[in-house]
Structures are given as C-alpha cells and as structure tokens.
Amino acid sequence: MEKNYKTVSLADGIPYSEIYSAIAGLYGSIKVSENEPLYWDKAELVRFFKRVGGVPQSHNRRRASLRVLLAAERMAQSGGAPVSEVYQLLCTFTASEDCGLCLQRPQCPLCPIAHMCRHASRKITSEDLPPGERPRERLLENGPENLTDSELLAILIAGGGGGESATELAKRLMATYGTLQRLEQAGGSKLSGIKGIGKSKAARITAAFELGVRSLARPIGSGTPVKGSRQAFEHYRHKFFNLKKEVFFSILLDTRHRVICEEKVAI
Q: 109, 168, 200, 211 - which has most CB atoms within 10 Å?
C-alpha cells in the first residue's frame, strides 16, 4: 500500500517559515527553470535539512526525501510561493559555489539562519577545517617535525570546547603561555581551570609531557654497571628538569660499580 506523505508529521519545532523568509531575503527573486524535475533526495538538500535538524542523521537520502519535501511544502505555504521556487532557492543556497552558503564546507558566520541551525551552534571540531589544514592528517602525511607546537597540542586536545575548535584552543593556550616549557610548568590543576580545557584535556597534556620526559631518560637499574659521571647525568637530567625543590639522590654501588639501589636522601 502506497504511503500518503500528507499523513507524515513535521511537528519537529523547526521554524521553517522563518528559515524560508531568511533565505528568500538573501537572494530575492529566483529564476525557476520550467519543467525541471524536482529531486528531493538530492544530496545537498538532505545535508542541509540534516544540519538544520529536520532530518535525522541516520536517514539515507531516499528515506530523507519525504521529510525534505514536506519541509519545502511548509516553506512554500508560509511564503506564498510555488514549491518549485522553494526547490530552486534551496538548491542555490546549498549547491551554488558562486553564491551558496550551506555548502560542503558551510559558511556559517555569513549564514542568515545560523541562529536557527543546529549545525552552526554545535561544538566546532577540527573536522570543520579543510583536509590540508587538519593537524592529525598533516602529521600522518608530513610527519610530526613539520607541525607547529600548537598543531601538535591540538592533536593531544582532540576535541574543542567553549565554542572553539581544538586548533583554536591550542593556539590560545600557546599564546597564553608562550612556550611549551611554561605550559608544562603550569601543571594539570592550573590547566584544568582554563575555559575549554577541563580535567580530561589537562590530564592528557600532563601525561604527554611526562611521557616525553620518560622517553628521554636513560634509566640505571639494579645491576647496571656505572662507568662514569655522564651516565648518572643522563639518568637524572630529565628527572630533575622541572622540579621546584632541591632533591638529593644517592646511587649505591657494589665493588664492581654495579648498581645496588637508588636512595632519595633529602628534599
């Protein structure tokens, strides 16, 4: 039995009349091509209504086309325009590289419906950047040595916060502290109080610094022969690097200069 689309509800709380009014005001009169077929499953239209919230993200294009049509009809009724004109208007807004705004990479800051759009008000992520500007992809393609400090930090942060992307948040952190050394000295408790960071991101940053220190250390374990002062220096240099108090250690050796144990003598 064929489904009657008139029975499908659009009670989703989305102000389609206001959306239509704002988009129509952006372009004015739209020239409608005569006898042009209306493809309501068009990828750009489905993407637009998913961003606005009128179509669930899980819907494929075929399943979404019914809700796209119903929303377009609601717009046409509110604006007193034929549905073919609404179709052409939406296609211009979503598919025209010359004057469209809701494209593959949307121009949300210029969009007249940004305040009504769920996509525009969502948390910004690095995925909103062009592929060539995303830190993670740049690291995998070009190597970590070709990334800036803030780009490496953005990969650690992973997600944005407070309306900023991870990249913007990392740049703000580096602008605040100036150097990685000062950022490390700030410590997790201080970083967690910064807007957009919180405990989870602060913990990741702190853990990354500690891993860096440990990777550079040259540990002296029990039974290791100590052949000179340079060996002791390499063992302690990174362990002592960021300490805020004086610490005194002793390495106890046997008669063959092999390590018996390490003792913390005083702080």
A: 168
Q: Which helix (H) or strand (E) holds 211?
A: helix 198-216
Whether the model clears a pTM of 0.70, i.e. scores above it, the answer is no
Residue 134 φ/ψ, nearest 5 degrees: -80, 125
Question: Tokens standing for 234?
Answer: 């390499």
Cα–Cα distance, 6 to 167 (Å, whole number): 46
- Residue 41 CA to residue 225 CA, distance in Å, equals 73
Nearest to 127 by CA among 156, 93, 104: 104
* pLDDT tens per residue, range 221-257: 788 888 888 887 877 777 776 677 888 888 888 888 8
Contact in structure between 155 and 135 (CB atoms under 8 Å): yes
Instruction: Please provide the DSSP assignment of 141-159 as one string.
Output: HH-GGGS-HHHHHHHHH-S
**Which amino acid makes up residue 95?**
A
Tokens of 36: 């042009």
